[in-house]
Amino acid sequence: MGGPAPGAPWNAGAPQSGSSVLAVLALVASVLGVLISFIPFVGSALAWALFATAIILAIIALVKKTPGKGMSIAALIITGAGFLLSIVWAVVLFTIGAFGSAVSSGSSSGSEYSPAPDDDYYSYPMLGTPDFGADGNTISAPLVPGSTITITDDNVSQDVWALTVLPFEDLTAAAAATGDLEPAFGAYVGVPVQLTNVTDETIDLAVDYAYLPYTRFLTADGGEAELTYLSDIETYPSAWDVEVVEPGETVTFYEVYDLAPDAVGSGFYVLDLDSGQTVFWGAAAL
Prior knowledge:
Structural class: alpha+beta
Number of strands: 12
Largest sheet: 7 strands, antiparallel
Mean pLDDT: 79
Order of helices and strands: HHHEEEEHEEEEEEEE
CATH topology of the largest domain: Immunoglobulin-like
Distance between the termini: 143 Å
Oligomer: single chain
Strand content: 15-25%
């Protein structure tokens, strides 16, 4: 009466079409996981949770053979790629963070031990001299070896050194006796310099290196002789071999130059001070 005709096939209705909710959710979870994985640090954990969710939903959708098989497979592919990408991104972030911490630590450590102008112990002096008159301040009126001048720290108006340049010495034979190389220009000329600590405090030149005066040997043609160092530092210590100088103590160091013997008499031993003053010693012969 209202049923199908005898022998007619059973009609189950229109076939299902579209995609299942599981497949859609799996795909959405995988895409969200990829996007969230780029959030520094916390993003990786959230992304992995979404990836796990996407995998579970995609597998269930495939097992149940629900519509949207392509979406489920796409979700699995995106999840795999996103998982690998999140691992790489996490490693990159960790490397950047570790490198930044190392640089910051190095800079902090360096600044902690570097001399600072506002630190009383490491404050930089401004070396000058009150003995800057008609003699010693020009090449035409140099001091003679044996002359002594006072070196002051102009920043605190305090005397620091009594500096004496002694007569020059020919150290060529002494250098040969200890196996040093022969001088390239004919002779090793040593300029003995005496420093007397006139303060009431110990000066450690290994730390307070700014208190060490800067000197050079100027030749008659305006050039500078090459400074060298002898191996016998017990007898001929350089300025860098002098360390602790107690109050009232006098130390002697040698500035050794490689130059021609006949250039000594026409050359000048020069002291350059932080104050801008320049003192000359000259008219010397070996």
